């Protein structure tokens, strides 16, 4: 049996995981030998790419330390940036890495992904995945993971704060005090008890918000394109118009889709109650902001809280939220009772730490074990771990176009070995096969890899040992 060092040296090239000249380590790290054991598989053999020290991960947008710790424990190389990168720099950086971690600002377009020659996985350290061309990624054999609900509570709590702040004009009173103005008023300031909250999109965030709002005495109605079970005393309404005509506060919690672009625009504001309030902590394209400005100037809408914008700055800094970025910015800023926040709905210590662990673990499991459970763009496949005493077993990960005849070809290549287990799944045009094959001599691996790479409908091949 060869040593791990020999394995690393022989097969790095074949595995396409180590063509970088500045890898910090070319040998299996300490973690390769001992550390990464998923909790569900404590008695199973640890599978790894041959040399975890060669795995390069690019983390943008201040991804949480919990994720960095997970990657460091694996021995991966981590390059970390607090902000997102301009497209040209992103294209340069992505050429070399096996995994990238982003939040909501980095746009991974088809153009950017075309340069990602080594990329196997993308981690969105957030809920939304609209910033990634999911189809282009899948077609290139790149799995995308997100964190579906780790920041939902944080967003819901922010919205609760905004409902009360808008009802009491807290933003304006606070700004006035900061400039020395004492303005003790009660006109058009309201309790929220007994008022109606209309939630558009009753998913993870909308439903969480519903529970919190009811606990403060609000009536909750919601509109969703799907029939969803009501929590508490909330009620689903049949149409958006019905929601708009009944709600005192309207809060948007839908994903960015073609269907949700300008979901609230001039006709919808006109359909709302006089003096009602608008909240958007979903995506910047969901509310037509120039139309909102007009509705507020006309006195139809009494206040608004916005956390998201069609164009958002790539980094923190002064004078970035300007007309250069969004042509209506100064108009919006000049209005009273408008609360503007810099996309911080999910920005709490609790949420970021949980997201770091969740997405960091998903990426590690995909890199080290091939498990795509939870991927948002990709066939979900997982195999149970290998027994600790299983030697000479190789895990084949084979991503291919979803066309007839591929399995026959692949199994023919694997046929000299015992297929211990095999699982394949497809999603749209892409299929993913995982197989554990035994009786593999170390000298066979390169040839197996090359044969699989030469198959006609292959998208990507990886072998884990
Ligand atoms: N401001 C922030 O920091 C954050 C913003 N978000 C945004 O919030 C969005 C919602 O998040 P979740 O509740 O976790 O998503 P979710 O997927 O759990 O729920 C979305 C709901 O919207 C519904 N929906 C889709 N299209 C609709 C339409 N045209 N009209 C009415 N309902 C529609 C869906 O059926 C679903 O029930 C995310 O997609 C993300 O863009 C998420 C987290 C943090
Ligand atoms: O925290 C972030 O950067 C993005 C939050 C968000 O919008 C999301 O989770 O979809």
Automatic annotation (TrEMBL):
Which InterPro entries does this one have? ACT-like_dom_sf (IPR045865), ACT_dom (IPR002912), D-iso_2-hydroxyacid_DH_PdxB (IPR050418), D-isomer_2_OHA_DH_cat_dom (IPR006139), D-isomer_DH_CS (IPR029753), D-isomer_DH_CS1 (IPR029752), D-isomer_DH_NAD-bd (IPR006140), NAD(P)-bd_dom_sf (IPR036291)
Catalysed reactions, semicolon-separated:
(R)-2-hydroxyglutarate + NAD(+) = 2-oxoglutarate + NADH + H(+); (2R)-3-phosphoglycerate + NAD(+) = 3-phosphooxypyruvate + NADH + H(+)
Per UniProt, the keywords (alphabetical) are: Amino-acid biosynthesis, NAD, Oxidoreductase, Phosphoprotein, Serine biosynthesis
The ACT domain covers 395-465
Q: What is this enzyme's class at the first EC digit?
A: oxidoreductase
- Write down the NCBIfam families for this protein, in alphabetical order: PRK11790.1
According to its UniProt record, the EC number is 1.1.1.399, 1.1.1.95
Q: Which CDD domains match?
A: ACT_3PGDH (cd04901), PGDH_3 (cd12176)
Q: According to its UniProt entry, what is the function of this protein?
A: Catalyzes the reversible oxidation of 3-phospho-D-glycerate to 3-phosphonooxypyruvate, the first step of the phosphorylated L-serine biosynthesis pathway. Also catalyzes the reversible oxidation of 2-hydroxyglutarate to 2-oxoglutarate.
* Pathway listed: Amino-acid biosynthesis; L-serine biosynthesis; L-serine from 3-phospho-D-glycerate: step 1/3
Task: Give the protein family.
Answer: Belongs to the D-isomer specific 2-hydroxyacid dehydrogenase family.
Q: What is this protein called?
A: 2-oxoglutarate reductase
Instruction: State the PROSITE patterns in the record.
Output: ACT (PS51671), D_2_HYDROXYACID_DH_1 (PS00065), D_2_HYDROXYACID_DH_3 (PS00671)
